[in-house]
């Protein structure tokens, strides 16, 4: 029997919810392009409930314990001697979320002698040292596409929020004011602007599709060029690199995975080539942007705004400069963890575990590393450094 170690974020400060704002979720059985949503043999949770926190347990306890497995759930992962470190030593499976990542470093993997499977309940497995996983023969999997549309919606929300100066205007209301001039002094129309995405995979393409009705110019760069039919449908302009694209854009959104080619991409040098007053949206990974370069660009006016949902490290310390820099719209990595998305990534996690314990192949689209090599989506999205 296996020991499954699950690292989830803390419950709400007022306790685990007893009621919810809505009674149900829309029924979605496939994603754009035809991939089906997760199809586990069963679920032991109510879709629309909070599953990603400690008490939610991703709805896994009844299933795992009925099969004779052990489930350990904790939010304690970063301090020296954390519960995660203590329990990892003999864990067979580790599950965590990009929103509360349990960083599986090479050192931790070396200590985890029984580890066979690392699952991301969501999308993005860069919190796992993929080189170390490959060397050890550990399978790395994620629930591909489960929250791609959730993140794309968040990008659109952040774009409009920055361009229309929504958050400062809302604060005037909270503070009892009616300061119209202060609200509109940084407010513009998105219509007619040039918007570009760094990467046009599932999330990036979904962003482009959702922004097209706003009558903007659409640009993208990606290592895999989109089909000509898609470019024509959306009126896309392709650029061979981010450096070639960003000088043309009023808004740039980052939707690329973190790997050696993208780490630190948006530093002082690249930001200096952007239009003065451009907006930068980053719901991908924080380390794609240079932390201090973003702060400097906002304070100098080179960037008119930065909205991000990703930080490094996560959770971010109280003194992280992105909390206090001007003209930002930061959120604490929630874009892909809506209650709608949680139902899908909890079901996908169970589907992965069912296949793993049955000894049957995991869906190819879920695989990042398998049999000592990048596999499935991982082979498309990541590169190894060794």
How would you describe this structure to a colleague?
The chain has 14 helices and 13 strands. It is of the alpha/beta class. The strands form two sheets. A seven-stranded mixed sheet has the order 2-1-3-4-5-12-13. A six-stranded parallel sheet has the order 8-7-6-9-10-11. The radius of gyration is 21 Å and the shape is globular. The mean pLDDT is 96.
The shape is: globular
Widest sheet, order of strands: 2-1-3-4-5-12-13
Helix proportion of residues, in percent? 25-40%
Number of helices: 14
What is the mean predicted local confidence, pLDDT?
96
* Distance linking N and C termini: 34 Å
What ranges have pLDDT less than 50 throughout 5 or more consecutive residues?
none
Order of helices and strands: EHEHEHEHEHHHEHEHEHEHEHEHEEH
| Overall number of strands | 13
Cα Rg: 21 Å
Structural class estimated from helices and strands: alpha/beta
How would you name the oligomeric state of the polypeptide chains in this document? single chain
Strand content: 5-15%
The biggest sheet, with number of strands, parallel, antiparallel or mixed sense and barrel status, is: 7 strands, mixed
């Amino acid at each position: 029997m296996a020991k499954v170690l699950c690292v989830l974020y803390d419950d709400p400060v007022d306790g685990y919810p007893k009621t919810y704002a809505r009674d149900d979720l829309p029924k979605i059985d496939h994603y754009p392009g035809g991939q089906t949503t997760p199809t586990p043999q069963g679920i032991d949770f109510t879709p629309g409930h909070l599953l990603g926190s400690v008490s939610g347990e991703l709805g896994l306890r009844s299933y795992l314990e009925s099969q004779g497995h052990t489930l350990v759930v904790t939010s304690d992962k970063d301090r020296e001697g954390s519960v995660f470190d203590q329990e990892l030593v003999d864990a067979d499976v580790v599950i965590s979320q990009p929103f509360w990542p349990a960083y599986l470093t090479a050192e931790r993997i070396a200590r985890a002698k029984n580890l066979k499977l690392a699952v991301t309940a969501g999308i993005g497995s860069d919190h796992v040292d993929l080189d170390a996983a490959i060397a050890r023969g550990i399978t790395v999997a994620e629930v591909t596409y489960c929250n791609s549309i959730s993140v794309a919606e968040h990008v659109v929300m952040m774009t409009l929020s920055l361009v229309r100066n929504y958050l400062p205007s809302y604060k005037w209301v909270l503070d009892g004011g009616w300061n119209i001039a202060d609200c509109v002094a940084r407010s513009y129309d998105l219509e007619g602007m040039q918007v570009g995405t760094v990467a046009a995979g599932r999330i990036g393409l979904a962003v482009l599709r959702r922004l097209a009705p706003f009558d903007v110019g659409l640009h993208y760069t990606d290592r895999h060029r989109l089909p000509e039919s898609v470019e024509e449908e959306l009126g896309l302009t392709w650029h061979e690199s981010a450096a070639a694209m960003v000088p043309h854009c009023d808004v740039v959104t980052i939707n690329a995975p973190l790997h050696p080619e993208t780490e630190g991409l948006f530093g002082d040098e690249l930001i200096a080539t952007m239009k003065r007053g451009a907006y930068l949206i980053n719901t991908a990974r924080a380390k794609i942007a240079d932390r201090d370069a973003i702060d400097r660009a906002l304070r100098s006016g080179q960037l008119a705004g930065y909205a991000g949902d990703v930080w490094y490290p996560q959770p971010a310390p109280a003194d992280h400069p992105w909390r206090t820099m001007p003209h930002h719209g930061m959120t604490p990595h929630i874009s892909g963890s809506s209650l709608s998305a949680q139902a899908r990534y909890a079901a996908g996690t169970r589907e992965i575990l069912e296949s793993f314990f049955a000894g049957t192949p995991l869906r190819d689209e879920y695989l990042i590393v398998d049999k000592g090599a990048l596999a499935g989506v991982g082979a498309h999205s990541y590169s190894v450094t060794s």
